[in-house]
Each structure stands twice: as structure tokens, then as C-alpha cells.
# Entry
Amino acid sequence: MSELFDAVDALLASRAVLPPPAERKRLRAAHGLTIDEVATALRVRRATVSGWESGKTEPRPPERDAYARLLDKLAELYPAVPADAATPDLGPAPAVVPATFATPAPVEAPTLSTSPAPEAAATTSPDTPQAPAAPAAAPRPAGTARPSSTSRRPGAKKAAPAGTPADDPRFENGPLAVVDAGEDGRVVAYCTGGLVLDLPAKSLPSLVDWTLKEARLGQPKLSGPGRPADPLLVLTEAACERYGLPVVLSEEERSAGRIPEGHKVVKQLVRAEWQLTKRGFGPWARIYRPATGSERACVQLCIPSWGALDPRHWGSVGELPPAELARVLGVYASRVMTPRGSTAVTGLELMTALHPPTRASEPDALGKRHSEHNPGSLGKDPIDLMAWPPCEVPDGHPVLKDLPKFHVRGPDEQLFEESMVWARPMTDAECTLRYLVGLDVNMAFGAGANGLAVGLGAPTHIKAPVFDPKLPGSWLVDLSHVDLSRVKVAKDTWADLDSSLLPSPFTPKGEHPTGPAWYATPTVAYAQELGYDVAPLEAWVQYDNGRYLDGWYQRLRDAHLATMADLGVDADLSPEDFLAAMDGYKDRDPELALVLSAIKATAKGSIGKMRERPRGENWRPGEPWRALSRPTWRPDIRAAVISRTRINLHRKIVKHAAFTGQYPIAVNHDCVVYASNGPSPLDFLPYRQGKPLPGGFKLGINPGLVKHEGTQTVLWGEEVRERFGAPELNLARFIKDGEITNADNGE
# Structure
């Protein structure tokens, strides 16, 4: 009978009554909820909720019932007011205080209310882009007053989602604050959403105390067994001066990555019984006390003037005024996570936050829970140094200490999976065309990680194995017999190609392999896909494996799509509309463009950091280095992701060649260049009735799809090659703007 009841409940849920799309949006905005928060709660993508609110799509079970329940509850809290309803007498209008800051706070620490200010409900969604202005804070439920020690800047821009649930007062003021000091000695903290807090702290130890006790900064955990993110304080140059820190590091301090342990501020922290991590007090300092039970006492500092925000990844973020800096970092924190260091470090921390190494066990006989390994994670301990396969580790690793000093490992000794860098001279037919058009793969490493099974522990060595495309690992196999002049392009469809115009997918430089070499599973599987048998000689395989990177990919994908949508580029645009929307999209909101750059750097940098090499540390070959102590030091995972990324691109190249007869001129990592009669990608991509070639290149913003990287003339390409005397000059490096910064011979 219960099964019948369940079936009836399912029928009711499938027809759950929903309000009109505009009302759905109003109810969400009235409660101060963001699209991201609703999507997270319902376990759907941000674009899905956006489609429900625009009326483009309708929710289906089981999400429909949960969505209807949410809207019903919101409708009880915020009933719609009839258009002809009389305006209630609210009494005298409140005075508007146009000052930038509230009245200076008293010396003692302010008491921050857990309740929000009685602000008017916004008439637009908190996620509506306000280009070129930045967004304003999301509306908060009325009924209580904001503390006198806080204020919101007049005309404050509407902030992007803060990433903190409205019902968690611990993080009421967002994930971070930018601390600045005025000439009058007053210190304030700029939070997300335009909120400004007065700071009474006279020293750095008291600032840390205030942050943990009064500031209500931080971010909820991203996974059930995880923990909330520690609050982040960003110190401006003026704040550094105010708290006795150098504005910039000396050459010696910059080389060491920290200020000396004898510095007066470090001594202040020690006297106050605060501790620093082994990295000391550097650009990304962590100040903490040992945890007592489940309570943590830790504050992260970010000091831009010390080089904390690398301009290669963050652009000009470190030069922004405090309020704008808080906005950019706050958007990044809400969509990725609170920064924990460089974008690469933050990417690794995101992996760990989504798959915490431990979890609480079931109660034992005495009812107590204990810490145990969290299945699907990399665990809390790194793989034993001497358990690493010699083929997977870089030169100088302890497992290779017995190799001769100047020994150079060949492809049969070392797994060398890297992204492709390849170029060739143009053919006579290509020289008769007018343009060179570049395509760039969006978040290529992210797309390569999506759905990829990777090892979770130490590998097992096998002699003469039978290849299994579903088993992660490294395989020693000869792929020199794979002939690109005749390959399978579908299940039972073979194609004849001009292999002289194609890069080999089995070497990073596109050269044809000459014998046995080590490859990651995706590379060997691709050889089978092309129609050729493989016979590995040996392998290191991972029987304990899983799709560890899926959550990481999804988080970064959603961050990328949400930011692009805010910049006016949606995921469901036609090819023509997509190209038009991409024209000048970064200029619509330069601050959000900086966020987008950091999101991309997070995806790329964290994969690279999984094989981090020694960085100074007085290291000698054969000795361990600091990165080896991380569970996320996983060169095998890095190799698998890069292998799949390279194969994904090569598969598109082959499909395109088989269908159109067009071959790439150059490939540079995630950029590929073709000769074309027209300057647009649509002049050579085989779109039919708006649909792309199956398995080929498709325009769009999703990871794995491509965008227009740039167009130059064929004449430009020939002049560049003639000027530098290198027929294999990689034009894909310079196709974006045509500027040649230095000669490139393809190395």
C-alpha cells in the first residue's frame, strides 16, 4: 500500500501548482535569496533556476515539488499586494543619511546585530547585472535595526550573491572584508554588498579577536563533512601602516616570502598566544589558535601590496579601491570559495572542501563518534613517497634517487602528458585564402576533468596487462602503428585523412611516436577509439578510483557561466548572437571581467599545481620537497586531466577534417587556428540550421565549447614567419591581437 501512496504523491508532485515566472522571481528577491542559493538548495544549475524565472522552462519532478514548496513558504511571508490596495500609513518617512560612514564607533568593540536593517525590498533580482555599475546588497527582511557601527555607502552597488544563507547569522556580513585606514586614524572594514564596519582594533592581535568575536565574517561549508571557511581580511597599504606592517616587502623578505620572526607584529601575536603556520607571516598569512573541540579560531590575511594577488591571474584587482576590491573578491568567494592563497592554491582547497578527507563515524558501542576516512576523498595523508611509480614522478623525486646524475629519461621511462603545442607551414591552397581564424576552448582543463575517473590512492603494478579504458592509470604501450591517414570517426565509419597536416595526439609536440611510451588512460583509449588495437607491456593502475573532480568542475563551471551571464553572454544564445554578445563583453563590467579571469586561472592553475616542483627551499635532487606532503600532490591526476584535454581537442580536429577537409595550421594548448575565406568562425565551421557538426567545434560559453580567439590575415601570418625565419612558428600564440612578443619556434 505504501508504494501506491508513493505513486500518488509522485503524481501530485508532477502537477504541483506554481506561480507565474515573474512572481517566482519576486518571491525570491523579497527574501533576499540569490539564484545561486536556490540552485544549490534544489541541486540544479543556476541556469535552470534562471529559466524557471524567465518562463523559458518549467521544473520537473522531483525538483518541481521542492520548488513549489519553497515558493509556497515565501508567498506566506511576502504576500502579493493587490494593485488597488490602499497605501498603508507608515508614519513619517525616515531620514536619509547621505554620509559615507556612520558615526565613529566608540573604543570598545561594537555589538553587531544578527538581524538586518529595515531596507526596502529591491524591485529587481539580486542577480540582475547592473553594468557598468556594480550591484547593491540583496534586500534583507525588515523588522530590526542595523547596528550603529555599520553603514552602507550611498549608492552602494548591488553585490553579487554573497554565498551565505540568510538564516546563518554567523556569516551575516559575508565571507571577507577589506580593511582600510583613513588619515584621521579611523579604521573601517569594507564588506560585500557595500556594508562598512567601524573597527575599534588598535593592534593586529585585537583585529584578529574582533574578526572572530564581532565581525560575523565567514562562509558556510561546501560539503557535509567539511567545515566553514575562515574569515578573510584584506589589508590595504594604509591598514598595513596602521597595524605596524611594512607597506611592501624588502628584497630579502620577498625572497623569503615572509617578514622575519623577530618583527614586532609577529611578537605581538606570540604574546597574545596566536600562532602562524609554517609559512610564517607572508602575503597570505594564517593566524590561529589550536582548535578546541569543533570550534576553530583562525583568520586568513591577504596583503595585496606584498604580492598576494598575482596580476597574471587577478589582473589589476590589487589596485582597486577598498569597496571595489571587496566586491570582486566577494563575488569570487561566493561563486568559487573564499580565497586561501593564489588561484592555484584556492583551486586545490576547493577540491578538498568538496571532498573533505575525514568524516564522523557512526556511533560506537558507547555512543561516541570518531574521525574516519571519507570515501571518495584523497584522504588526510599523502601517498608514501616510495610507493610512487617511477614513471609518474618528475626528475629529482626521492623514488628516482638511484638514477645516474645526468640521466635523461625517455618516453619509455617517464609519463609525459602535456597539452599540445604544434604548428606547420601553410599549404599553397591555404595561402590563397584571406584569413587565419583562432578558436579557443573554454575552460579546457575543466572540461577535461568532467566525468573523469581518477585514482584515489596508491597504484598497483601489473606486467602485460589487458587494457581497460575504464581503469585509471599509466600504461607502457607502443602506439606508433596508429595511422592518422585512416581512422574511425564513428562506430563503423572510417575516414581517409591527410596525416601530414595533422598533429599526432600521442605526443605534446604533435610528433609521431617511434616506440613504447608511457601514456595515461585517456590517450590509450583514444587509440582504440580511432580503430587500432593496443597491447600494453606494463601498467600502474588505480583500482581505488572515482570521479573526484566532478564537484570541482561543476562549481567552477557554474561560476564561469554565472559571471558570463552577468557580462551579457548567456549559455543558450544562437551562434550569431553568441559572437555578437562576446564583442566587448569584458568592458560591460571590468570588475566582473577580473573575477572571470580569476575563475579561469583557478581551473588551470590547480591542475598544474598537482605536480608542483621544488620552489627554492634549499632543495637537492633525491630529497623530498614541501609539496610532496600534500594529499593533493597527484601528478597522476594531473596527467589524466591533461591527457583527456588534449584528446578532446584532437577529436574535434579529426571530426572537422573528416567532414570539411580543413586542417589546423597551429595548436597552442587550448587554441587552434584555421585558414578561412572569411574573418568569422562561422565562415568555416559547418553549422547547419544553427546546429554544429556532432563531435566537432561548437560555439558557446560552456566549458569544452569554443569562442572566437582572434582573426588575422594570411598575409600577416606569412610575414611573421618570414620575419622570424621559422616556418613552424606557432601562430596560435599570437592570433588574438597579432602582436609578436618574442620569436617562438614551437618549443
Summary: DSSP finds 20 helices and 23 strands in the chain.
